[in-house]
Amino acid sequence: MMKTNVLFVTLDQWRADHLGATGNPTLQTPNLDALAGEGVTFLNHYTCIAPCGPSRTTFLTGMYPSNHRSIRNGTPLNHSLTNIALEARKAGYDPTLWGYTDTTPDPRVLGEDHEAFLTYEGVLPGFTVGQQLAENSIPWLEYLAAKGYEVPGPGYAIYHPDPAYKLPPGRHPLSAPSRFRAADSETHWLADRLIDGLQKAPNSPFFHHLTFLRPHPPFISPPEYHDLYDPAEMAPPVHASTRDEMRGLHPALALMYEAIPQDAFFMEGEGRAVDLDDAAVMQIRATYQALITEADNNLGRVIATLKEQGRYDDTLIIVTSDHGEQLGDHYLWGKIGFYDESFHIPLIIKPPQSWKADTGQQISEFTESVDLMPTILDGLGVPVPRQCDGHSLMPFIRGETPATWRRAVHWLYDFRDPVTGMPEKMLNISSAECNLLVHRDAEFKYVHFASLPPLLFDMKNDPDETRNLAEDPDYQGVVLDCVQELLSWRMRYEYGELVNLSASKNGLVGHRLY
Q1: Cα angle 193-292-169, degrees, rounded to a multiple of 5
Q2: Rounded CA gap, 366 and 375, in Å?
Q3: Contact indicator for 104, 77 with CB cutoff of 8 Å
């Protein structure tokens, strides 16, 4: 029997409300919309952690971050854990990476002085590297230099605006385009590398993991895209109150406002991102949409190649994100904290034709990033490792609703800084206390900090999370219920790879209980 092909795609920092197929009124995502129509879209899909490295570790191992414990960019990953690439390789695939996984290896294997620890951008074990795209961008920059571009240096320096661009009257400086054309962008270049790989092996079954950088910052788009969206037509950011009043809402917010710099989001930024004015915020929102459309167009090129080769119908395509982006909501930027904007992400699964799936559905049940590895392996007929905390989404893809399914999602956010210790000093708490856990169901979101005050939001009546009810006497019963639910979830999902096994007179016996 012909193997099912797998194309597993992520758009970095892509939040759930930025997809045409699910209701965004201004965003152009024709290829993703078409894919949603031929697949299954999960409307309430959440990452279990941010930022990039931990979130990718989570969906690539199928484990909650409370168990794999690679909880920050640069936190080493336990070498004893398996992952989607290793399991697919056992099944006869050659899992190939186009982009990055941001994996830091285990120092107990390599030794603490190994050069691998000069960066957090290692590759997850099990992947063949088709083309790596690390933060230094060296292969792409070499490509640009060979085409005659002046390359200022490694890393993000290339994202300074085009110095030849003349800003029209009334336009915000952040509307200036990049110095490279769309046909030479890192998005187009990476798609080309995968397309080249597909064309070199047109008849071989494949397992490709394509990880577009965009719409991750720096927020600047090529000249063909930079005027695509009018800042005036963008939805305004959500603000519960003034910046100063928000700082007083919670110590963690005060920390985030202080810690997030403008230059993490665009070149030549100065000062704190919280202080960006309204015009800058709206322009960045327009540029963010342009970067999503650019990624959509390049994904369309990959899909067109599969169709030309006659392989589209035999390919499982998963498109999702590692985490979202605050985009100025609550005066925050990046992937941070506890608000939905950072953790609610898109998920589209287009099954191969042989699965006889119920396509075109939009599923409203809660799903989590830990579900991706079990779903892929289940669909391929490959055993799901006992370490996995997630659950296969195959019943939904077949048009079935499981008899029991989760009623809430959970995520961890760890804000310690082993390098500078700034959060620890500012909040006067230990590194082990610099974390939070979220219990989020259809009615309420409860945020539990290790040593800071909790938060509670009414998600039905206050979906923008503008009023903290944790200290309201009328909601103490809700707080207690949420604490109990959070504790029960945490107890159910303690690391359990071996706990359901037992020695017996018949040898080792046991099974997965969830």
Answers
A1: 115
A2: 15
A3: yes
In whole angstroms, what separates CA 229 from the centre of its chain? 24
Residue 324 has pLDDT above 60, yes or no: yes
Q: Is residue 395 part of a domain?
A: yes
What element of type H or E holds 380?
helix 372-380
CA distance 269 to 281: 13
Q: Which domain holds residue 122?
A: 5-406
Taking the model in full, what pTM does it have?
Answer: 0.97
| Cα distances (angstroms) measured from residue 345 to each of 46, 94, 279, 320 | 6, 28, 26, 7
pLDDT band at 357 (very low <50, low <70, confident <90, very high): very high
Residue 411 lies in a domain: no
CA pseudo-torsion sign 99, 19, 61, 313: negative
Residues known to be catalytic: 52
CA–CA gap between residue 306 and residue 268 (Å, rounded): 40
CB distance 266 to 218 below 8 Å: yes
Q: Does the residue 423 lie in any domain?
A: no
pLDDT for 2:
75
- CB contact at 8 A, 409 and 456: no
Q: Report d(CA 397, CA 344) in Å as an integer.
A: 20
Average pLDDT of the chain?
A: 96
Strand partners, 410: 439
SS3 call for 407: coil
Mean pLDDT for the stretch of residues 34-62? 98
Note whether 19 and 32 are within 8 A (CB).
yes
Question: What H or E segment, with its residue span, contains residue 304?
Answer: helix 278-308
Grouping H, G, I as helix, E, B as strand and the rest as coil, residue 97 is strand
Under a CB-based contact definition with an 8 Å cutoff, are residues 486 and 472 in contact?
Answer: no
User: Which CATH number covers residue 287?
Assistant: 3.40.720.10
Tell me the sheet residues that pair with 412. 49, 437
Question: Does residue 52 fall inside a structural domain?
Answer: yes
Q: Which of 187, 260, 197 is nearest to 220 (CA)?
A: 187
Q: Which tokens in the block code for residue 190?
A: 């990476």
Instruction: Reduce the secondary structure of 452-499 to three states and give it as a string.
Output: CCCEEEECCCCCCCCCCCCCCHHHHHHHHHHHHHHHHHHHHCCCCCCC
CA angle (89, 94, 95) in 5-degree steps: 85
Q: How many domains does the chain have?
A: 1
pLDDT for res 234: 98
Local confidence band at 72 (pLDDT 50, 70, 90 cut-offs): very high
